[in-house]
Design a protein that fits this description.
The chain folds into 2 domains: 44 residues, Ribonuclease H1, N-terminal domain (Ribonuclease HI, Chain A, 3-Layer(aba) Sandwich); 140 residues, Nucleotidyltransferase, domain 5 (2-Layer Sandwich), CATH 3.30.420.10. 31% of the residues lie in helices and 29% in strands. It has 6 helices and 9 strands. The strands form 2 sheets. The chain has a 5-stranded mixed β-sheet. The N and C termini lie far apart (44 Å).
């Protein structure tokens, strides 16, 4: 069976996507989303109004040549990531706060922090991911923002917050309690982003976390 491609005209991420999971993340809940599935790359490009600009012997190898353009709905999102330095046993987080208006214009604010907590550091970069979500929410609370969507590439960020995973460790218990308390003051949603998929803001958050540790 020929491999399907997903051409997204209107969504959080537009262009050619290689899997249904990526397509679903892009279009689900996005106002007036437009997309179609194809088995032929030229037909998919034609649907998008694009010309082929890559030389392919195998049409199914297109994935590594794609550049994704972010088109976000109005609202505030925080893209978070974490990093860990095995030499110093420190961990860090990066958060990119993206505020998008009704016209699609976005303002960006970058946040980062480094931590020395010995107990939390046992979780390596996951500790950074968790602290990135907390840092973004703290920013919202301090700036009277009443709704935030946390975009993350580690699924535990959502699962622990929503009680779908057991919070057995001190790190995750602290995180779950923090989210529960924050939700009394702010609406918090989550979107899973595929790691290293070329998402602009996710890559920015990853870079911020690494820079905080001088990596």
């Amino acid at each position: 069976m020929a491999r399907k491609l997903y051409a997204v005209k209107k969504g959080r991420t537009t262009g050619l996507l290689m899997t249904w999971d990526e397509c679903k993340t892009s279009v689900e809940g996005f106002p007036n989303a437009e997309y179609k599935s194809f088995t032929d790359i030229d037909e998919a490009l034609a649907y998008l109004g694009l010309a082929r600009n890559i030389d392919l012997e195998d049409k199914n190898s297109v994935g590594n040549n794609l550049i994704k353009e972010e088109k976000l709905p109005p609202g505030i999102r925080a893209y978070v990531d974490g990093s860990y330095d095995d030499a110093t046993k420190r961990f860090s987080c990066g958060a990119v706060i993206v505020k998008t208006d009704e016209k699609g214009n976005s303002d960006i604010e970058e946040l980062s922090s480094v931590f020395d907590d010995e107990e939390f550091a046992k979780h390596r970069n996951v500790a950074g991911e968790v602290m990135g979500a907390k840092l973004a929410i703290k920013h919202c609370l301090e700036n009277s923002i009443d709704s935030i969507t946390i975009c993350h590439d580690y699924e535990g960020i959502e699962k622990w917050a929503n009680g779908l995973w057991k919070a057995n460790a001190l790190l995750t218990q602290d995180y779950k309690a923090y989210i529960a308390d924050a939700r009394q003051k702010i609406k918090i949603d989550f979107i899973k982003i595929k790691a290293h998929s070329g998402d602009k803001y996710n890559e920015m958050a990853d870079k911020l976390a690494k820079q905080a540790l001088n990596m």
